[in-house]
User: Which sequence fits this backbone?
């Protein structure tokens, strides 16, 4: 053995989640400049181990030794970062609403709130260099939003970002090539070898054994949470690794003996074209297990989804389905398990009809049915009433398979049903396949493990959305599958064609992107309403006319902007109407006579908003609930200050609002300033990047070392500041205070931000759009008056505009998908 | 032995969060007795009668919330006012039963429109119902210029004066509807499908649940219950007014949440919502008899609400970072 400098040693690590032991005495030695290939079946604990190394998970037991041993209790993500550990995560830790270079900067910049002038330009150059270092000629514009990148481009960014870490000592790559094209994979392998030459250690986790063979020096095999074999790559072979992984699967004997009989066809697909899929033809007969194979991302999942959805409504005449259909997914978290339920409910949800008598679910029957499957599949649990989440992955999967079998469908789609399942359970699952087959059911099987395809009678191999080959019976083995999958790949047309697409940007595209811009719709609506107003009453277009018409819009501008900040963070403010009322009375009653006290109150108020943010973050209570409760508090405080309407606006405040700005009416000036300020905060400032990131992927921001808590407090305080500005404006407009008068702003502010182009899913803002939306909504009542329409219809018009705006958005988004 | 009993008890409470809302109601009742110096069944029944409206509304709201994806029905406050007006007019013209049926049918239509916009235009439920609420409110404003919304005699007698075994029939309605809701949510396919959809819509769809159908039903149920409530409330107040549903917006969301309904969806509690509504009503009653100024009442109500909500929302066990 060569004598290399050791970088990190893990000894006897234990990590336990509830009932599952993810790591069980795992040990690992990492030397400097070494590339370690980490292999193991799904659920072996590889990803958990990586999260232990990167300090994301604290461990129950074990030792972590760099030059000196670290205290495992205090070992966290920051300490791991300081030690020089960076990780490209499998589930991609990018913020999709930020641009590529911003995603680099989230990791690279110091944590001061503001950057130097021109930091963005510099950041773009630097980020581009980082990308080129790993992937020469990467072809990615760093200004692109991550959500607009292809999956493979995202993975490139993720890897390059991790590799660009300053003071990098250990780079963890978790399934780095799952969506990369073959030439990018070659680039990656070359780049990490260069990195290793500079003394950086690399952990390379992959299911693709040929890649491990090409890229790594050492191999470590994990199974069941511990290391089962480790050694130099030259000491082993791919076959041996497969054997060590315990992947040997007994092939079933009865396969391929099916007699062709057209009457037995359960599913027939002729010339299906949909999305990724091109001219797919296939047939499935009773008593048959049909595999769908191919390289990852060749359209297998799309095909399964199309087949399944044809059971609901026949979208395509191309799919002829002659039976009920059920679906079993291996992606238990996202597509399978109902986490709040027990085993019983999880199994029977697909077959409730069988337990119903006289329209109601019969408890006894229900339990019996569940017990039947529980016994049949030999669950390892205390009983049918156990929570599903207390089970191991394999047993959860059994529940899902039972669910698929229980509803008596003749066709069962199995999408990677043995993902993360131990060998024993796997064999049991294969037995169930056989049983289903004997009962005359048909199974469509898709698996990420090629070996599993040996269970099938026939296998269709997909490539780039097309069926390129069909294997039958004894022809089905890993070698043939791989050969078939890689057919036609030599030209590598996919990546080049997509690159060509990216470069085509004509006038048409630019026009389309204008239409799709978030602020287009609200600005258009505003101009339309103003156009109608001016057409009906030309005097509106005068300086005074506009001042009068838009004066009442200013409060809505601010309160909607405040609402926008909360929505960006993933929350919603249900109490801002009352909050504006309270600020209103503070200003009208205290600011005039005791300015100091008034200012103190307002500062306290903003701090209370910040506290609300902290509370929402720390207790994980939905923002809607907290802000709802807070609305009572605002009302109460407002009533304490003044139980009855009254007061007066300070003269300086009135002076600001009635200031005669040259040529442009004051309300428009204020609105423009508000738009500019919030635009700068969210789209230009450094901390704005973090605010946006928190709304989209808080975990990624935290991993980069920014405090989620601080971000929440800042967001809520900015929102509180906007409420204060709104309160100041209403005081100036109404020249007095009334704590109860502005409750309707709460609903209006939500309507405004939605019209303005924001979305509830968080991280998506549009300051200019929101301001335009506020101006538009405020001009509706004038329009109705001019049109001589009953002013009672004002709210209805707002409602219709809202629905219309969202419908238009839906249509333009559809265009985007194509 | 002691330990397992303890564990079982805590498990039972974990599954039956409604017990806290029931206990809270009891405490409020006792406190009202302490403040007024008289502890009577009467105060409890009076407040339970008053709570009936909130119970009915909250049951619908709970159903929508349980359907998941952060759904909330913001239109019910306006539906209440609309149905109060519409039912009074229709009942005068065509009799009580046909009037009620048509009113509820109109409300069902509102639910169908909500479902259509939400499911087919892919507008989040909150925005859908907000926009719909705006439209309904306009309708209310239009109608209110033509009618006073005076209920027919028999409806106001039924809601105000009638006593069955010394108790207002509103209480029986609240209980009957609650029982029916319990059956619907926990004993039928729809109930199971609703909870499945609320936990994970994709998984539910793959398990054979018709999402569109389920969501439509939840919106319709919510709107129809709001319509029924509005009709009764119009009778109780002896007339309809434009903002009669306004005070129910916040409480109709708070009552289910206090009772253990998850804002994230997939978890509901009929008993919890029942007692949550009762608790909120008694809380307001207590604040009223306390003779505190309105400001302090609101402060206490808001503060208590936040504390109770904080306590009743179970802490998420986040495994994955």
Assistant:
């Amino acid at each position: 053995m060569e004598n290399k400098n050791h970088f990190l040693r893990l000894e006897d690590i234990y990590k336990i989640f509830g009932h599952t032991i993810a790591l069980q005495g795992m040990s690992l030695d990492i030397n400097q400049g070494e590339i370690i290939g980490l292999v193991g079946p799904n659920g072996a604990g590889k990803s958990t181990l990586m999260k232990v190394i990167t300090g994301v998970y604290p461990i129950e037991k074990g030792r972590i030794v760099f030059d000196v041993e670290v205290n495992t209790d205090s070992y966290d993500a920051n300490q791991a970062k300081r030690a020089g550990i960076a990780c490209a995560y499998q589930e991609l830790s990018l913020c999709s609403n930020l641009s590529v270079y911003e995603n680099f900067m989230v990791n690279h910049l110091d944590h001061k709130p503001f950057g130097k002038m021109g930091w963005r330009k510099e950041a773009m150059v630097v980020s581009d260099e980082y990308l080129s270092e790993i992937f020469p000629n990467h072809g990615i514009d760093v200004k692109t939003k991550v959500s607009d990148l292809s999956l493979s481009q995202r993975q490139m960014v993720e890897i390059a970002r991790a590799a660009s870490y300053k003071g990098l000592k250990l780079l963890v790559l978790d399934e780095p090539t799952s969506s990369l094209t073959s030439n990018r994979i070659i680039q990656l392998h070359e780049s990490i070898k260069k990195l290793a030459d500079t003394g950086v250690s690399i952990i390379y986790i992959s299911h693709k054994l040929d890649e491990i063979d090409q890229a790594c020096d050492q191999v470590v095999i994990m199974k069941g949470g511990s290391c089962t074999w480790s050694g130099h790559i030259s000491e082993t072979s791919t076959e041996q690794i497969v054997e060590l992984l315990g992947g040997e699967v007994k092939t079933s004997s009865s396969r391929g003996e099916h007699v062709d009989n057209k009457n037995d066809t359960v599913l027939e697909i002729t010339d299906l074209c949909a999305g990724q899929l091109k001219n797919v033809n296939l047939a499935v007969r009773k008593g048959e297990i049909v595999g769908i194979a191919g390289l990852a991302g060749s359209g297998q999942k799309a095909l399964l989804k199309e087949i399944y959805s044809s059971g609901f409504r026949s979208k395509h005449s191309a799919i002829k389905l002659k039976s009920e259909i059920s679906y079993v997914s291996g992606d238990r978290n996202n597509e399978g398990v109902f986490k709040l339920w027990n085993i019983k409910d999880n199994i029977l949800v697909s077959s409730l009809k069988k337990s119903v008598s006289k329209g109601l679910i019969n408890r006894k029957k229900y339990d019996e049915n569940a017990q039947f499957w529980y016994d049949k599949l030999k669950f390892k649990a205390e009983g049918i009433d156990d929570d599903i989440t207390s089970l191991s992955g394999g047993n959860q999967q059994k529940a899902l398979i039972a669910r698929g079998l229980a509803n008596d469908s003749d066709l069962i789609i199995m999408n990677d049903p043995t993902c993360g399942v131990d060998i024993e359970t796997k064999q049991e699952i294969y037995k169930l396949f056989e049983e289903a087959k004997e009962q005359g059911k048909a199974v469509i099987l898709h698996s990420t493990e090629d070996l599993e395809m040996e269970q099938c009678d026939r296998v269709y191999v997909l490539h780039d959305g097309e069926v390129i080959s069909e294997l039958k019976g004894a022809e089905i083995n890993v070698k043939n599958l791989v050969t078939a999958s890689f057919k036609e790949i030599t030209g590598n047309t996919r990546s080049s064609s997509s690159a060509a697409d990216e470069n085509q940007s004509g006038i048409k595209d630019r026009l389309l992107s204008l239409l799709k811009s978030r602020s287009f719709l609200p600005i258009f609506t505003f101009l339309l309403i103003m156009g109608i107003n001016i057409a009906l009453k030309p005097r509106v277009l005068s300086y005074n006319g506009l001042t009068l018409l838009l004066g009442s819009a200013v409060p809505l501008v601010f309160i909607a902007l405040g609402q926008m900040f909360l929505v960006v963070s993933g929350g919603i403010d249900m109490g801002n109407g009352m909050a504006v009322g309270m600020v209103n009375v503070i200003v009208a009653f205290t600011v005039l006579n005791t300015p100091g006290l008034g200012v103190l109150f307002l500062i306290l108020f903003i701090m209370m908003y910040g506290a609300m943010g902290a509370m929402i973050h720390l207790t994980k209570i939905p923002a809607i609930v907290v802000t709802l409760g807070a609305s009572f508090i605002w009302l109460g405080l407002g009533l304490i200050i003044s139980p009855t309407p009254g007061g007066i606006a300070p003269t300086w405040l009135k002076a600001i609002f009635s200031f005669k700005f040259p040529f442009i009416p004051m309300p428009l000036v204020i609105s423009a300033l508000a738009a500019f300020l919030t635009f700068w905060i969210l789209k230009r400032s450094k901390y704005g990047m973090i605010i946006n990131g928190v709304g989209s992927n808080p975990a990624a921001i935290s991993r980069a070392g920014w405090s989620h808590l601080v971000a929440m407090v800042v967001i809520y305080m900015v929102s509180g500041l906007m409420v204060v500005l709104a309160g100041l404006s209403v005081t100036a407009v109404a020249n007095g205070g009334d704590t109860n008068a502005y409750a309707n702003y709460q609903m209006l502010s939500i309507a405004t931000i939605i019209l303005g182009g924001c979305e509830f899913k968080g991280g998506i803002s549009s300051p200019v759009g929101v301001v335009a939306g506020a101006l538009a909504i405020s001009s509706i009542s004038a329009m109705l008056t001019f049109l001589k329409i009953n002013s009672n219809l004002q709210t209805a018009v707002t409602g219709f505009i809202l629905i219309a705006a969202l419908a238009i958005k839906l249509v333009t988004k559809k265009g985007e998908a194509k | 032995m002691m330990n397992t009993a303890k564990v079982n008890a805590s498990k039972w409470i974990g599954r039956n969060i409604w017990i806290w809302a029931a206990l809270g109601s009891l405490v409020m009742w006792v406190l009202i007795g302490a403040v007024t110096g008289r502890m009577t069944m009467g105060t409890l029944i009076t407040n339970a009668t008053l709570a009936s409206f909130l119970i009915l509304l909250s049951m619908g709201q709970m159903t929508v919330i349980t359907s998941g994806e952060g759904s909330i029905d913001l239109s019910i406050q306006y539906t209440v006012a609309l149905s109060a007006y519409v039912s009074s007019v229709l009942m005068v013209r065509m009799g009580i039963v046909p009037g009620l049926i048509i009113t509820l049918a109109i409300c069902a239509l509102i639910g169908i429109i909500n479902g259509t916009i939400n499911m087919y235009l892919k507008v989040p439920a909150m925005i859908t119902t907000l926009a719909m609420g705006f439209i309904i409110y306009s309708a209310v404003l239009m109608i209110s210029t033509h009618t006073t919304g005076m209920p027919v005699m028999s409806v106001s007698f039924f809601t105000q004066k009638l006593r069955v075994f010394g108790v207002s029939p509103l209480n029986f309605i609240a209980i009957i509807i609650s029982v029916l809701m319990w059956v619907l949510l926990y004993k039928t396919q729809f109930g199971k499908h609703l909870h499945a959809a609320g936990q994970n819509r994709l998984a539910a769809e793959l398990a054979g649940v018709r999402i569109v159908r389920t969501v439509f039903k939840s919106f319709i149920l919510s709107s129809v219950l709001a319509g029924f409530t509005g009709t009764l409330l119009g009778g109780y107040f002896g007339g309809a007014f434009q903002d009669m549903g306004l005070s129910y917006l916040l409480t109709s969301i708070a009552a289910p949440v206090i009772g253990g309904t998850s804002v994230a969806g997939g978890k509901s509690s009929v008993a919890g919502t029942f007692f949550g509504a009762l608790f909120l009503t008694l809380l307001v009653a207590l604040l009223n008899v306390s003779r505190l100024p309105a400001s302090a009442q609101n402060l206490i109500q808001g503060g208590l609400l936040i504390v109770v909500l904080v306590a009743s929302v179970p802490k998420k066990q986040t495994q994955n970072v």
